[in-house]
């Protein structure tokens, strides 16, 4: 009896560990090009989880504290819009922030907003932005996506880390 109970508990724990946390949208830096004029161009990609979509006008990705942004340097893939604001667009729930990123005043935040529906399980690249900052550091991003589970849809907020320009050197 004890062996059966122990085996069941171990199997249950193993399945719980193997399942891991739920997946979510990921924003990553795919490369950083050092340019001849002393600037650096960051190349980003966005990967959506199969259970989430990006809806036009409401879902977005923000990279915080992208110091030294070169005006007019940002590029977006087809179906995406770009904006840069001092205070980054952050996911909210009933008017309150759903995540709490470090957002430093006077540093640009860069946001890409879906202008067309982006299906789940997609990998999108072609996001770029150029900075005058020469160093890198661990920074943050947030995203708002639409998650569908058990036939119901709702907004999901995500926060994560990625490499960003070192604003301390500014």
- Give the total of domains: 1
Oligomer: single chain
Biggest beta-sheet profile: 6 strands, antiparallel
Show unreliable segments. 1-21
Helix and strand pattern: HEEEEEEEEEEE
Tally of contiguous helical segments: 1
Shape: globular
Cα radius of gyration in angstroms: 19 Å
- Report the top-level CATH class: Mainly Beta
CATH third-tier fold name:
Immunoglobulin-like
Architecture overview:
The relative contact order is 0.26. This protein is mainly beta. The strands form 3 sheets. Strands 3, 4, 5, 8, 10 and 11 form a 6-stranded antiparallel beta sheet that branches. A 3-stranded antiparallel beta sheet has the order 1-2-9, with no helix packed on it. Strands 6-7 form a two-stranded antiparallel sheet. It is globular. The N and C termini lie far apart (66 Å). The protein has one domain: Immunoglobulin-like (Sandwich). A hairpin with a 5-residue loop joins strand 1 and strand 2 (40-47). The chain has 1 helix and 11 strands. Residues 1-21 have low confidence and may be disordered.
Short summary of the structure?
The chain has 170 residues and is mainly beta. It has one helix spanning 2-19; strands at residues 26-34, 40-47, 52-53, 60-63, 80-85, 92-93, 96-97, 109-114, 123-131, 136-149, 152-165.
């Amino acid at each position: 009896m004890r062996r059966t109970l122990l085996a069941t508990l171990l199997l249950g724990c193993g399945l719980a560990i193997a399942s891991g946390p739920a997946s979510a949208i990921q924003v990553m830096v795919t490369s950083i090009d050092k340019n001849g004029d002393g600037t650096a161009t960051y190349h980003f990609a966005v990967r959506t989880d199969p259970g989430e979509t990006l809806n036009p006008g409401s879902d977005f990705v923000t990279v915080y504290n992208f110091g030294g942004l070169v005006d007019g340097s940002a590029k977006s893939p087809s179906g995406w819009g770009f904006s840069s604001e001092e205070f980054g667009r952050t996911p909210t729930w009933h008017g309150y922030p759903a995540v709490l990123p470090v957002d430093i005043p006077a540093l640009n935040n860069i946001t890409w907003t879906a202008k067309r529906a982006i299906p789940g399980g997609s990998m999108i690249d072609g996001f770029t932005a150029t900075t005058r900052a020469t160093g890198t550091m661990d920074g943050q991003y947030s995203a708002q996506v639409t998650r569908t589970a058990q036939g119901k849809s709702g907004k999901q907020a995500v926060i994560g880390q990625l490499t960003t320009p070192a604003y301390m050197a500014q």
